[in-house]
Amino acid sequence: GKSFVEFAEDMKNTYAPYCRNHDEVITVMEKYKGNPEIREYFQKLINNMREYCNVFDLDALLIKPVQRILKYPLFLGELLRVTEDSHKDKVEVCQAINAVTDVAKAINEYKRRKDLVYKYKRESDASLGEMFSKLNLHTLKKKSNRMRGRLSNTMGISLQTRDENFEREENRFRSLEKAVKVLLKDVQCYMDNVQVRLDYSNIYIKIIYEVKKFKSLYLKISQQHYPQLRSTVEQLVIIPLNKLTVMFNGPIKVIEKRFDKLLDYDNLFKKSKDTGKYNDALDSAKNDYEAMNAQLLDELPKLYRLVYQVFTDCMRCFIQAQKKYLDISLQETYSILDSFIETFNVKHTSVLDRISGLSFIPRGFNPKYDSLHRQDSVKTEKKKRISDTGLSIQSESQKVFVIQQFPRDKLYQVNRNYKASDLMDLCLNQGTVVGVLKEQDPMGNKDKWFVDDGSNKGFIHKSALSLFQSSLNSDPIEVSHIHFLLQYYYSEYSFTARNQNEVTLFEGQVVTVLAKHDLNSNTEWWLVDADGNHGYVPSNYLKAM
Question: What sequence ranges are listed for the domain DH (predicted)?
Fold first, then answer.
């Protein structure tokens, strides 16, 4: 008897889950008996067990623990019957009978709770016709009482019976349910928006012929990378989250039924308290409520942990898939970004200069254009020469600027007078030093190179260029000396001359500093040479090269 009393709690914790799940195990076994591989596997295990004990089949083996726990009270009762009243073990045997009986009751209660929950989960799947077939006067009366209880609870009249532990677990479950649905909605919205963006990109590449490189990039992203993202998110995020939302229906239905049972119990308890009579209906309502409450308290925390794990895994998978897609798309975009920007800058400069030449455009709209236009009007002799030849003359400061800005292998010299044959071409004199920015035009023609002569950027035929050979390169001391004497600076800001003693500068213009003070020795104004124009400019506008 002492051993039964000592191990009663362990027996309850072990046998209760086993007996509670026994019926479901049998159902699953019947389902898998049609599979030859599974049937052969179980038969192999049964044959191995027959070497150690007497086993008929798997069903008989699974029912033995259920039969054993129910036989213990019978064995102990028989032992008590043959034990004399004066025997010292009489009391312990009685205690053992009580303990084992409590274990059997607990197991039955576990089983009843599970059957009750299963009953209401199954009712949630019933058709409308089946639900109407169960309606009767008693059912309508019960639902009417529940409606009054729900109305009272909505108006703030609290229930007589409350379980704070259950309310805490329910709130956690509801919060997680909402988080799962919000994540599912946001992921689907994100995927739809990505698809819409790709669809609009497809429209752009059809109507804008010039974006050939973007078209190839778009096709690679939309036909290769996006389907991979869609497949990964669908398999690892959307499908699991959809399954979770469907699985929530069962627990939600049981929680609602638990609340209905609570309303029934409170209603009957209030009536019995008013009349002073307790009846079987009150006991039945109390048992149903306590059974469902205990079952939910047992299973909701487990469900929360499992759902939370799936939820975090789905979120992690989505973030990783999104990051991979964006990284690949960004790397693909970088490959064409430089050529896009360069082509845009060339065309933007051309259009801006053409707009600045219109009569109705106000002065100051394009300071660089205004400065060059004003210089041309002042230098009449140089302007005449340019109009005769159609060629631009490179100043010494511009030449030194090009030599300093470009590496040796990018420096070229114009070997003949070159006149523009296209809108973006440069007119250059023989001997002009240029730096090569790109060895092709925006259309991919490698016969025309994009160059910089120190003041303008444009295209020139590569046959008009030869590698630059400079005598300065042979004497570093001479180069340093010339650089010191010329003192080249560039303008950090645009400056507009206000009188004939000042000179106009555009942002980035290279100048030669002739004196770092004015006639009154004021160092805030420096005398500079800006492409042949002499005048004063603010010293804080200039920065050494």
Answer: 1-110
Residue 340 phi/psi, 5° resolution?
A: -60, -45
Q: Where are the beta strands (DSSP E) in 117-238?
A: none
Query: Mean pLDDT over residues 437-445, rounded?
Result: 83
Query: Which amino acid, residue 192?
Result: D
Query: How many structural domains comprise the chain?
Result: 3
User: 311-319, long-range: CB within 8 Å, 24+ apart, which pairs?
Assistant: 311/176, 311/179, 311/180, 311/183, 311/241, 311/244, 313/240, 314/183, 314/236, 314/237, 314/240, 314/241, 315/183, 317/232, 317/233, 317/236, 317/237, 318/187, 318/233, 318/236, 318/237
- Residue 221 is given by DSSP the state I
Mean pLDDT of 440-457: 85
pTM, two decimal places: 0.49
Residue 239 in any domain: the answer is yes
Helix locations, 208-279, DSSP H: 212-220, 226-233, 239-247, 249-275
Place of tokens 């590449």: 205
For the chain, helix, strand, coil in percent to 5 are 70, 10, 20
pLDDT of 148 over the 70 cut: no
pLDDT at 538 over 80: yes
Closest CA to 79 of 12, 13, 3: 3
Burial 499-508 (b: 16+ CB within 10 A, else e): eeebbbbbee
Confidence of residue 346 (pLDDT cuts 50, 70, 90): low
Judge whether 461 and 448 are in contact, CB under 8 Å: yes
Range of the domain at 105: 2-123
- Percent above pLDDT 70 for the chain: 76
Check whether residue 201 and residue 332 sit in a common domain: yes
| Structure confidence at residue 35 (pLDDT) | 82
Cβ atoms of 16 and 107 closer than 8 Å: yes
Whether 394 and 492 map to the same domain: the answer is yes
